[in-house]
Design goal:
Structural class: alpha+beta
Largest sheet: 5 strands, antiparallel
Shape: globular
Strand content: 25-35%
Strand order of the largest sheet: 1-2-3-5-4
Radius of gyration: 16 Å
Number of strands: 5
Oligomer: single chain
């Protein structure tokens, strides 16, 4: 697959930057004229992944989150959210609804179920003490529909 557009952004692992990441991914895909549903789906999934990096990866401590988005010619959007934090000991367990690493905290889990419901594919790779990468993929069908209308 050939790349149509790509961007990388590193930012501090701070709660205030979760909304910043949502705005950045919106700006990245907006020129493609996505539907409101597509835009909302991508923003929500990215928000969940970035929040995981901040809360679970770094435990509220210092660190950097990388947002790497790639748009391929076939209108496949791939977004990697990468941290160099604690890592996830058991990825399969972490992907179950309501699982959390925050003891006593009122959290509803790590949000992988939410990400899966909004994206076409979610892949999680992690190494203890080295960090986690959450890869989100979604084919932007609005692009296909626009091309069909122009033809």
């Amino acid at each position: 697959m050939r790349i149509k557009n790509e961007m990388r952004l590193d930012f501090p692992a701070a709660g205030k930057n979760e909304s910043f990441a949502r705005l950045v991914i919106s700006a990245f895909i907006l020129p493609l004229d996505p539907t409101l549903e597509e835009l909302s789906d991508v923003k929500t999934a990215v928000s969940e992944a970035v929040t995981n990096a901040i809360v679970h990866g770094y435990g509220g401590g210092e660190g950097t989150v990388r947002l790497h988005a790639t748009l391929f010619e076939d209108d496949l959007l791939r977004v990697d959210v990468i941290d160099a934090g604690r890592g996830i000991e058991n990825v399969e367990l972490a992907r179950t609804p309501f699982f959390t690493t925050c003891e006593g905290d009122e959290r509803s889990g790590m949000g992988f179920t939410v990400m899966e419901s909004f994206m076409d594919a979610v892949k999680v790779t992690s190494k203890i003490g080295r960090g986690t990468t959450v890869r989100l993929e979604k084919r932007l069908r609005a692009c296909e529909e626009q091309a069909a209308r122009r033809a």
